[in-house]
Amino acid sequence: MKKKMILQQQMNEYKYHYLFTSFDLETYDLEDFKYNFVNITSFRLVDTADVGVKQILKDIGLYSHHIFKKPYLNLHFTKSTVLESEPALMFDSVYVFAIGLQTLEQSHSLTLSNISCEEENSWDGGLSLINYLNAVEWKGLTGPIQFKDGQRVQFKLDLIKLKQHSIVKVGEWTPHGHLNITEPSMFFDAGSMNVTLVVITILETPYVMMHYGKNFTGNERFYGFCVDILETISREVGFDYILDLVPDRKYGAKDPETGEWNGMVAQLMKYKADLAVGSMTITYARESVIDFTKPFMNLGISILFKVPTSEPTRLFSFMNPLAIEIWIYVLIAYFLVSLCIYIVGKLSPIEWKCINACDLENISIGNQFSLTDSFWFTIGTFMQQSPDIYPRAMSTRIISSTWGFFSLIIVASYTANLAAFLTTERMINPIENAEDLASQTEISYGTLDSGSTMTFFRDSVIETYKKIWRSMDNKKPSAFTTTYEDGIKRVNQGNYAFLMESTMLDYIVQRDCNLTQIGGLLDTKGYGIATPKGSPWRDKISLAILELQERGDIQMLYDKWWKNTDETCTRKNTSKQSKANSLGLESIGGVFVVLIAGIIVAAVVAFFEFWYNFRYNHKATTSQSVVNTKYNQDGILESDRNYTPPDRSFWIEISEELRYASWCMNKQKRPALRRTCSKCTIPKGQRINKL
Ligand code: CWD
């Protein structure tokens, strides 16, 4: 299989084993396979590390320099310090032939006689030369050389294997001793090997922290949540590790202009480390250049902000339980209902009462719903007091009961919400979520530099987040902080919000009561352990992470580093705050609808009552069995036997009545409509003599 095909099929992983039949593996370009733990095994003929081979190569170099003024013969014979097997074999055979000839020359003359084309005359020295060649024993470029019956019998083949950084000799094959493997561990699974991985990390409380001082060296310097996880995983999977800090103290972000990566991502891409452990977020951009294990922790971006100050107590705080528009609507409803009762009372004949009913001399008729009484009646009902006016007509009763129901709901809602307001401390919170943050300019905000939070806003297509990014990007001095501690410091100074990862945010707000989380999570993602692309450790570590999660080990470690410390601050329970909100129209608007419906029904009923009365009086005027009335100077209706009302239509009557009502006071002219006093039934034939 060609190298290109192996790469195309992505068969360059630790799962694949290749046995090369060529003796020239060392001369191939294996850069693409080196760090992927692909198993490549082969034999080699020329051991360039051998002292004898080195000496021969040195001599060839000197010779070529002497003859061609070049360090090596330019015959595609060599490639830097390695030697292809074919030229090496050629060199050895020429050398052996030269030794044979040299030995032959000592007993034979090497001048050749003429050759005849007719006769078959063999060369006398030929047999001797074969014998001398068979007798040659020499150590050439391809190892020890010895012949038996014209066959080379003494030679060795080195068994070689591709290790992470180079090709190493792992055994030897000889025709007599057969295969002797000197490095058996090289053929075992990476899990059981005694390997030491280079692990890079970044300081981030409580994930990775550092002991400073001479007493701590090597891996002992580091401690924290991620260090504990790494230690547990290394025992599970079976590897040793050297833990060190990433040189530029960055997680890793791609420069959009140069396309270059920095931080831990760059270190893994350059194969300078085998693993990157820390609060390293799995992102799409990173996943395309390095590999991540399964996440060991889930999180999202949130807003860290200073705890808002308490709202100062105001003189009119008692109004807070209801929204201001509700107060206005209640006031409007009060005026409307009072006027309606007044008008409906006037229209409804039942609301007209005889005064001095049995004194036929002074009989007069009055209405209990004067304008001031209507207002008094409505406010009395609203205040849950029983006023001394009792509506008698159906229309006025409908309005009264609807208004009573309205008052009951408003007063009950107000009382309940007032209790909540009095028991909770109100806070002034200038921002509630990311939208609030984006739409204001007073509070500045930022993220950690070159981290996934920064790239989240930079690459987002959501308008709010794009706006946040533009604001942060243009901010002078920079909105980005080199460490998250800087961000917290700026939040504590005030007027600054820090967009950060929720796990870290939880850790901070549990310890600093002056800080709080604003809103929910803007996204969801996870922390994983990063490896170079194609690393065999990725799957093994992923399995270990899943096992640790299922066993609850990761939860226990979380509790250890987040909760079981004395540093946590005791916070007042602020959960009630959000519940004590002013009641708005959307909560109690329905009660206004009921009230309006009641007013309309009452108006309709009043209309029919008026109509009924009109019909009744129309008939009565002809029979003369009722007392006709008129208004005296004091505005009281009085009976008037001399008064004969004009015979007018219903519509003129009702408009007259409404016009009278709109004058508001009783001290007006007599209305056109004749009123009846039910209590004053006049015996047939008797007439009222006097007003
Ligand atoms: N990181 C970040 O981008 N924002 C944060 O608030 C914290 Cl605590 C860390 C780095 C991030 N985890 C990454 O991998 O880039």
UniProtKB/TrEMBL annotation:
GO cellular component entries: postsynaptic membrane
Subcellular location: Postsynaptic cell membrane
InterPro entries associated with the record: ANF_lig-bd_rcpt, Glu/Gly-bd, Iono_Glu_rcpt_met, Ionotropic_Glu_rcpt, Iontro_rcpt_C, Peripla_BP_I
Residues passing through the membrane, by range: 326-345, 402-422, 588-612
Residues involved in L-glutamate binding: T281, R286, S452, T453, E501
Domain Ionotropic glutamate receptor L-glutamate and glycine-binding: 206-270
Primary location recorded for the protein, binned into one broad class: membrane
Provenance organism: Drosophila mauritiana
GO MF annotations, alphabetized: ligand-gated monoatomic ion channel activity; signaling receptor activity
Gene: LOC117146308
Record family assignment: Belongs to the glutamate-gated ion channel (TC 1.A.10.1) family.
Topological type in the membrane: Multi-pass membrane protein
Protein known as: Glutamate receptor ionotropic, kainate 2 isoform X7
Start and end residues of each Ionotropic glutamate receptor C-terminal domain: 196-564
Site (Interaction with the cone snail toxin Con-ikot-ikot): R458
SUPFAM superfamilies for this protein: Periplasmic binding protein-like I, Periplasmic binding protein-like II
Keywords: Cell membrane, Disulfide bond, Glycoprotein, Ion channel, Ion transport, Ligand-gated ion channel, Membrane, Postsynaptic cell membrane, Receptor, Signal, Synapse, Transmembrane, Transmembrane helix, Transport
PANTHER family: IONOTROPIC GLUTAMATE RECEPTOR (PTHR18966)
Site (Crucial to convey clamshell closure to channel opening): residue numbering on this chain: I431
Disulphide bond pairs: C513-C569
Phylogenetic lineage: Eukaryota, Metazoa, Ecdysozoa, Arthropoda, Hexapoda
Residues in coiled coil: none
